[in-house]
Write a structure and sequence with these properties.
By secondary structure, the protein is of the alpha+beta class. The chain is 20% helix and 26% strand. It has two domains: 31 residues; 131 residues, Umud Fragment, subunit A. It has three helices and eleven strands, in the order H-H-E-E-E-E-E-E-E-E-E-H-E-E. It has a seven-stranded antiparallel beta sheet with strand order 1-2-11-3-4-9-10.
C-alpha cells in the first residue's frame, strides 16, 4: 500500500505544471486591512441605504399610541405601514390608515369612512354616507357617533382628494369630526395587520 507524500523537490513540481496551485501576489498586511475596511464600509452604506429606501417607500414599522382605535387596535401594539400601495390605488372605504394629523402634525391611525365626492351626515349617533346608514361591524353594537360641536347633526362633503376618517373608539377619538376631511397627501398608507 503506498501513500502519496507531499514533495518539496522543485523539479518534480515543475514537471507537473497543471497541478500547481494558483500563485497569488503577496499582499502586505496594510493593503489587506484597507481592502477589508473598504468592503465593510460598502456593506454598511448599502444596508443603510436599503433600510431608508424600504422604510420610506415600501414598509415601515409603526406603534399605535393611544386608544382612539380600540377595540380594533390596542395601545402599544406594533404593525406595518404599507407606504407604496396608495401609489397604485387611492384609499378605500374601511381602510385603517396612518395619517399626518391636521391638528398637531403628529401621526394618527384612523379608519376611512368616506372618500372624495361622498357626503357624511352624523345624526342621532349614526353615520350616514351618501344618505345610507353606514354598516360598522368593527364597532360594538350600539356604539354612537356624536358630532364634536354644539349641534346634534353634522353634514360634511368630501371634496377632491379629501377623505373623512374616524377612530373606532368614537367616544375617545379626535378625527374628521373635529378637523374635517383629510387631504390625500396627509395619508401615508394603510396598516398591515
Amino acid at each position: 500500500m503506498s501513500t502519496a507524500t507531499p514533495t518539496t523537490d522543485p523539479e518534480s513540481i515543475s514537471a507537473k505544471p497543471n497541478l500547481l496551485p494558483l500563485v497569488r501576489e503577496a499582499r502586505t498586511p496594510a493593503a489587506s486591512i484597507l481592502r477589508q475596511t473598504f468592503q465593510c464600509l460598502v456593506v454598511v452604506v448599502l444596508a443603510t441605504a436599503s433600510y431608508f429606501v424600504i422604510s420610506r417607500f415600501f414598509l415601515q414599522s409603526v406603534k399605535v399610541v393611544g386608544r382612539s382605535m380600540v377595540p380594533t387596535l390596542c395601545d402599544s401594539q406594533h404593525y406595518l405601514l404599507n407606504r407604496w400601495i396608495y401609489r397604485v390605488h387611492p384609499p378605500r372605504h374601511s381602510d385603517i390608515v396612518v395619517l399626518v394629523d391636521p391638528g398637531d402634525n403628529g401621526f394618527s391611525v384612523k379608519r376611512v369612512v368616506a372618500t372624495p365626492g361622498d357626503s357624511i351626515y352624523l345624526k342621532d349617533g349614526g353615520v350616514y354616507v351618501n344618505g345610507c346608514k353606514l354598516d360598522e361591524p368593527y364597532l360594538a353594537a350600539g356604539t354612537p357617533t356624536f358630532t364634536d360641536s354644539k349641534y346634534r347633526d353634522q353634514l360634511t362633503l368630501c371634496g377632491k382628494d379629501q377623505f373623512f376618517v374616524l377612530g373606532d373608539n368614537r367616544l375617545n377619538s379626535i378625527d374628521s369630526r373635529v378637523y374635517g376631511p383629510v387631504s390625500r397627501r396627509n395619508i401615508l398608507g394603510p396598516l398591515i395587520w
